[in-house]
Amino acid sequence: MFLTTIDDIARLSSRCVWDAGISGFYRETGSIYIDSNMAFKEVETLPPNLKACDVTLSSMPSLCAIPPGLQVRDRLILRNLPQITEIPDDLRVSELQLTRCHRVKSLPFGTTTGSLFVTDCASFSDIPAGFQAYGQTYYLGGRCLTSTADLVISKCPSLSILPEGMRIQRNLLISFCHSFVGLPHRMYVGGTIAIRHCRNFEGFPENLGLVRGDLIIEDCLHVVDLPRYLNIYGNLIIKNCPNLNSIHDGINVKGKVIRI
Description:
Elements: H1 6-15, E1 18-19, E2 25-26, E3 32-35, E4 51-58, E5 71-79, E6 92-99, E7 112-119, E8 132-133, E9 137-140, E10 143-146, E11 151-154, E12 166-168, E13 172-175, E14 187-189, E15 193-196, E16 210-211, E17 215-218, E18 231-232, E19 236-239, E20 252-253, E21 257-259
Parallel strand pairs: 3-4, 4-5, 5-6, 6-7, 7-8, 7-11, 8-12, 11-13, 12-14, 13-15, 15-17, 16-18, 17-19, 18-20, 19-21
Antiparallel strand pairs: 1-2, 9-10
């Protein structure tokens, strides 16, 4: 549903109640999309306690804060919001997308998402310890369905590390983060790990024993070695890493070793 006034949002919020008969789903009328091409260029605040399946807030140069009490079942997209500095505490969504929110520095402790995508956020530097990106399990028409979850961070020049104890259900993809230096010693990633175009990335922790998908390393000039007893269930793909000259005999790759 496309909205044109604050009153539209308030009326929509009053209709977006839980539908208890469908395992806590919001009604389909609860999707909210707002951008500055409508009547929101000067809007500084939005009504509290909004509930929706999906929420997109885009290109709102005067919006100062995410509305308090916001509840989003599926996808929250925050794009081109130059005044936003914080993400709500204890946010739980199936997917969170942050794009060009240059004043957002971190996610608050307790944030739980399915997939997390952070792109071109100049100040973003911190994900809380123990962060989890896991899909949600729900029931629809008698079937049990589970969404998947990735952590994807790109073009965030302030990001240098990821938190100890993080758990990513599927893939971990980091690219064009030029301050990023390394992965945590304690983490779980259920799929592919890809580090691309991170010019200060120093390498992988020695205790990284298993990659459950592909391991992709591209344009990482400081990587000189891989963990000695690494097992890779997918492919090992190395592109433009001139100092990574050899692979230990103890490394086991079930797929292919591809050098480009």
